[in-house]
Write a structure and sequence with these properties.
It contains five helices and eight strands. By secondary structure, it is an alpha+beta fold. Strand 4 and strand 5 form a beta hairpin. It is globular, with a radius of gyration of 17 Å. It starts with a helix and ends in a 22-residue tail after the last helix.
C-alpha cells in the first residue's frame, strides 16, 4: 500500500494526538515570560454536529459532566458555517486555570472521539490577550495534530506579524503547523 501511495504522490494523513493539548500550559508560561500575553480563561471545541439522537445525547452528557461539581461554564454556540462550538470559561486568575481548561478541552475531544465522532471534530482553541486588548488564539487542528496562532483584527483581517511572532516563541513547546496555508481564519469564533 505504501508503494501505491508513493506512486500517486499521496502521503499518509497525520493522526490526531489529543495529548498534544497538554503542551498548552507550558506555552502559556513561555508567552507570559517572553511577551505580554496571558490566557483569558476561555477555550472552545468546534465540531460539525451529527444528525440523530445519539449525538445530541452525547453533547448533552458532555455539557452536564463539565458543568457538574463547580466545573467551568459550558455554552454551546452555533456559528454561521454550521459548526457547533462548546465554549468553556474558567477563572484565568487561578493558578491551575489553564491546566484545568486544557484538561476539560481534552475531555470534550476524547468523549467525541471515543463515541465515534472524531471525524466531526474541527479544532480546539485557547484564547490569550494582552493589556492593550490584543487577542489571539492557539488553534489545535484535530485532523493534523498541530497548532497555529490566529490573531484577528476586526471582522475580516488578521495580524500575521503577531501570528508569526507567537509561532516563533512557542515553537519549542508545541507542534506548530508548518503549512501556513492551513492556518485558516476562525473569525467570530466564540470565546475569541
Amino acid at each position: 500500500m505504501s508503494f501505491l501511495r508513493a506512486l500517486l504522490g499521496r502521503s499518509k494523513p497525520a493522526k490526531p494526538n489529543l495529548d498534544q493539548l497538554f503542551g498548552l500550559p507550558s506555552s502559556a508560561v513561555t508567552l507570559e515570560a517572553t511577551s505580554e500575553f496571558a490566557p483569558t480563561g476561555s477555550g472552545s471545541v468546534a465540531f460539525r454536529a451529527a444528525e440523530g439522537k445519539a449525538f445530541a445525547t452525547l453533547q448533552q452528557e458532555v455539557t452536564e459532566l463539565l458543568n457538574a461539581d463547580g466545573g467551568p461554564a459550558v455554552e454551546p454556540v452555533q456559528d454561521e458555517y454550521g459548526y457547533t462550538w462548546l465554549v468553556l470559561r474558567t477563572d484565568p486568575g487561578e493558578s491551575t486555570g489553564i491546566s484545568d481548561l486544557v484538561t476539560d478541552l481534552h475531555a470534550v475531544n476524547s468523549s467525541l472521539e471515543s463515541a465515534g465522532f472524531g471525524p466531526s471534530l474541527l479544532c480546539s482553541l485557547v484564547t490569550f490577550a494582552d493589556a492593550r486588548g490584543r487577542k489571539f488564539a492557539l488553534v489545535y487542528l484535530y485532523k493534523r495534530g498541530t497548532f497555529y496562532p490566529f490573531a484577528p483584527q476586526g471582522k475580516a483581517n488578521r495580524d500575521t506579524a503577531l501570528e508569526l511572532q507567537i509561532a516563533a516563541l512557542i515553537g519549542d513547546d508545541l507542534a506548530i503547523e508548518q503549512d501556513k496555508s492551513r492556518w485558516f481564519p476562525v473569525y467570530g469564533a466564540p470565546g475569541l
